[in-house]
Amino acid sequence: MDDVAVALADPVRREILMMLRARPLPVGEIARPFPISRPAISRHLRVLRESGLVRDEPVGRRRLYTLTPEPLGELAGWIARLSAPAGWEHRLDALETEVHRTRRERATGTAGPVAGPAPHTGHERTEDTA
């Protein structure tokens, strides 16, 4: 996950990944929109390849680079856990959902009978107050 995070830290590498979403590309096409040298682009591609985010394969005299998004899964899972509510926030979100569901059921009449207080049978225990 650390290698992926390091690879994604650079804006040029992020843009290269966006370009490779559409289709595999040779280094010449990848380098074209950037104002940096082709050897610099090759270094960026090496970082992406070593992190597992791209793979390359020779096709004739060219190398085609292809996006491999699977390594993003671990990082995405970590980010999801980081941004998910924790502790009481999660419980309060669940309570809010339940309150809205109950209100909706009552408004539409789809809920079962609402339990009220138990009927008085005369056998309840009372506390003496002295």
Walk me through what this model shows.
The protein contains 6 helices and 3 strands. Strands 1-3-2 form a 3-stranded antiparallel β-sheet. With 130 residues, the chain is mainly alpha-helical. It is elongated, with a radius of gyration of 30 Å. A hairpin with a 2-residue loop joins strand 2 (54-59) and strand 3 (62-67).
Number of helical stretches of at least 4 residues = 6
Q: What profile does the largest beta sheet have?
A: 3 strands, antiparallel
Q: Which of globular, elongated, flat, extended, rod-shaped describes the shape?
A: elongated
Q: In percent terms, what proportion of residues is strand?
A: 5-15%
The amount of helix comes to 40-55%
CA-based gyration radius: 30 Å
Write the layout of secondary structure elements.
Layout: H1 2-8, H2 11-22, E1 25-26, H3 27-31, H4 38-50, E2 54-59, E3 62-67, H5 72-83, H6 88-108
Antiparallel strand pairs: 1-3, 2-3
Helix pairs in contact: 1-4
What labels would you give this structure?
about 130 residues; mainly alpha; three-stranded antiparallel beta sheet; 6 helices; 3 strands; elongated
